[in-house]
Design a protein that fits this description.
The protein is mainly alpha-helical. The chain is built from 6 helices and 2 strands; from the N terminus they run ααβααβαα. The mean pLDDT is about 80.
């Protein structure tokens, strides 16, 4: 019975709920990021190079190579015929990663800049006066100075 009680305490802690909310929001944000990269940025990258990387492949079977020699095959058509090494998709994933990493870098850099600006705007607390001990020591010092 102790194991069940420990699990209930663990599952009902606020941290687990926060983690679940973070995962759900992260998944939703992942869809937004994928759309930004796939639908907005990748067409610009492809336009700059005038290249569609997604259909670049190497046919691994003779049937695919022969069909490709007769006419250009899309990646999906080539996969129906036989195995292919789709290195174009790999290139696309690498470009997506670099774009995503740059976007995250810009967001984190902006956040850090805003945080530094916010911390700089905080007014420094006014200096506190001397403590009772410090006042007493100052009086003793002054009295000793007068005697000497």
């Amino acid at each position: 019975m102790g194991l069940l009680k420990e699990f209930r305490e663990f599952a009902l802690k606020g941290n687990v709920l926060d983690l679940a909310v973070g995962v759900i929001i992260g998944a939703a944000f992942g869809g937004i990021v994928n759309s930004l990269i796939g639908d907005v940025m990748m067409p610009v990258v492809a336009m700059a190079g005038n290249v569609d990387y997604s259909n670049w492949y190497i046919g691994l079977s003779s049937a695919v190579r022969e069909a490709g020699a007769k006419g250009a095959l899309s990646l999906d058509e080539a996969r129906k015929i036989g195995p292919v090494m789709a290195y174009g998709k790999f290139i696309t994933v690498i470009i997506n990663f670099l774009i995503l990493a740059f976007c995250i870098f810009v967001v984190v850099k902006g956040f850090n800049t805003a945080r530094k600006r916010f911390e700089a705007e905080k007014a420094a607390p006014p200096p506190t006066g001397p403590t009772l001990d410090q006042k007493l020591l100052t009086e003793i010092r002054d009295l000793l100075a007068k005697k000497a």
